[in-house]
Write a structure and sequence with these properties.
The protein is an alpha/beta fold and about 550 residues long. It has 25 helices and 15 strands.
């Protein structure tokens, strides 16, 4: 597949993320490393080399076992083996386990991790592998149960799995629902006609039918799509990894409410800089969850004990640790302790983040220090807007630039819709009516000087002339609308593809249709050619 990339010149994400991309100095002080500074990755590697690697090797063995269970391709298994032997560092990223792969940004995170790992391996002269952390513990079902896409016929579509029996069950415990079968039939009708549609949908169907849970189906799909590029999948609910989490839970409980206070202080500093803090946790939140009969229940500090929100059950920290030691799966992380757990289990040289992830990591520097660790280098994920050659031709025809596409096309669409309504033409006819009316007024005055009876005749004559002008205006507008209707529709479709529902394409649209168009060639093109800047690129596909 042939793909070209053009820098959009506009960041679709304002505020903290844009400031980070542009190297704002006061903001970068909120993080341990400056990814744009010389030697940041080498400094992080040295810091990791000073730490005990035994638990990383144990986690690496668990990752080997997990990826073998996924029937991962050889390069992924070889990368996991490097971690198991303690020979590699890692570039880590992760995301919720979106149905049939989630939105495009999920794919971009994975591809960024692979690209960055390859670059750092060359720069540092040592093994660096890419790891994808599947957020299987997450229970936000509304975030993973849908997909939106533009089908093979140019129509915007949304498919939804419906609601689960409980909204607090982690994705790693939810079986693939029966509704997935009917959604697959709709996908086959919508994407089957595309160049690689059939083979991709066969792969997706196989992953769904083989999966033990929604999160497992996601891991299977990404392993088969990107395991050949060396991507290692990690699932925190995998028993081999869960058994290694106890030191993180112990330290979290030892620190009590200190991490929460540190988060609040960091949030206040960000607010003073003009940024909205990414984390706003409830008072007393213990940064941990308790698994109760499959459901996930937040834990809170209450008078030195830990309890659920309603206070119906409570434990001392020692009692909770004893339970976690006997049953490692009874505790899971929240967004804060997830980052700490991830870096405890994996020697994380860098973490690939998007705007949301960067926002909450901006509050974690001092929390990491309280755990005796430092943050990894935080690197922005790829940001792409994918367009076909036909859509590029529409842009050229209407003089739409890449910056307008990256900004959502509001001005371009507005201009053409205005043209479609014939605003300029209506103004032109209004001017003619005023001109004719004024000339008739002057003529009427002259005629009344000859004979007063000619005045009413002049009025009647003016009314007939204005009626003819109105008739001509309507005919002209009909022709004008026919001329611009198809062009306005083309631009609306371009806006719907590039900026669906008023948000960036990568947040809203599934990766499946693009993979159905370009197949593995699209993956190869992005890995080879897409610039690792974090700034939005317009990618033109020849599909």
């Amino acid at each position: 597949m042939y793909v070209t990339f053009t820098h959009a010149g506009v960041c679709p994400y304002k505020g903290l993320y844009e400031a980070y991309l542009h190297n704002r100095r006061d903001l970068l002080e909120c993080f341990t490393y400056n990814p744009w500074g010389a030697g940041a990755f080498a400094a992080r590697a040295r810091d990791l080399d000073r730490l005990d690697r035994r638990h990383w090797r144990e986690a690496g063995k668990a990752l080997e076992e997990y990826n073998r269970g996924l029937s991962a391709p050889g390069p992924a298994l070889e990368a996991a083996a490097l971690l198991a032997r303690g020979e590699a560092l890692a570039v880590v990223t992760g995301q919720q386990a979106g149905f049939v792969g989630g939105p495009l940004l999920t794919l971009y995170k994975a591809l960024t991790a692979i690209k960055l790992a390859r670059r750092l391996q060359s720069e540092l002269g040592r093994p660096v592998v890419a790891v994808f952390w599947v957020a299987s513990e997450d229970h936000d079902y509304a975030e993973i149960s849908w997909l939106r896409f533009i089908d093979a016929f140019g129509r915007f579509r949304r498919l939804d799995l419906g609601s689960p029996a409980s909204l607090r069950v982690p994705a790693g415990f939810l079986p693939v629902p029966p509704a997935a079968e009917s959604l697959m039939r709709e996908l086959e009708a919508a994407l089957g006609p595309l160049s690689h549609g059939r083979e991709l949908l066969d792969l997706v169907r196989d992953c769904l039918s083989s999966a033990e849970s929604l999160a497992h189906s996601f891991a299977l799909l990404y392993s088969r799509l990107l395991g050949g590029e060396g991507l290692v999948m990690a699932d925190p609910l995998f028993p081999g990894l869960r058994a290694l989490a106890l030191p993180v839970w112990r330290r979290t409980l030892e620190l009590g409410t200190l991490p929460l206070r540190l988060l609040e202080q960091a949030g206040e500093r960000l607010a003073a800089m003009g940024f909205k803090p990414g984390l706003d946790l409830e008072p007393g939140h213990a940064l941990l969850f308790w698994h109760d009969g499959g459901e996930r229940v937040a834990l809170f500090w209450r008078e030195g004990r830990l309890s659920d929100r309603g206070g119906s059950r409570s434990w001392t920290p020692e009692e909770l640790l004893d339970l976690a030691q006997a049953s490692p799966g009874c505790i899971s992380s929240n967004v804060v302790t997830r980052a700490l757990l991830q870096d405890w289990l994996i020697p994380t040289l860098a973490e690939v983040v998007g705007p949301g992830g960067l926002a909450y990591m901006a509050q974690l520097k001092e929390v990491y220090a309280a755990f005796g660790r430092t943050q990894p280098v935080l690197f922005p994920r790829l940001s792409l807007t994918l367009l076909t050659r036909r859509e590029a031709a529409v842009m050229a025809q209407h003089g739409v630039g890449v910056a307008q596409v990256a900004a959502g096309l509001p001005a371009a669409v507005s201009d053409l819709v205005g043209a479609d309504e014939g605003v300029g033409l209506r103004k032109r006819f209004a001017l003619e009516r005023r001109f004719v009316t004024e000339r008739y007024r002057q003529l009427k005055e002259e005629l009344q000087g000859i004979d007063p009876a000619l005045g009413p005749l002049a009025d009647a004559n003016l009314a007939r002339v204005l009626h003819q002008i109105e008739y001509l205006e309507e005919k002209a507008l009909q022709s004008h609308r026919r001329r611009y209707r198809s062009q306005a529709e083309e631009l609306r479709r371009l806006a719907e593809t590039a900026w669906p529902l008023g948000r960036p394409q990568e947040q809203m649209l599934s990766a499946l249709p693009w993979l159905a168009r370009g197949g593995t060639g699209l993956i190869s093109a992005i890995l080879e050619l897409a610039p690792l800047t974090g700034e939005n690129q317009i990618a033109y596909l020849d599909a």
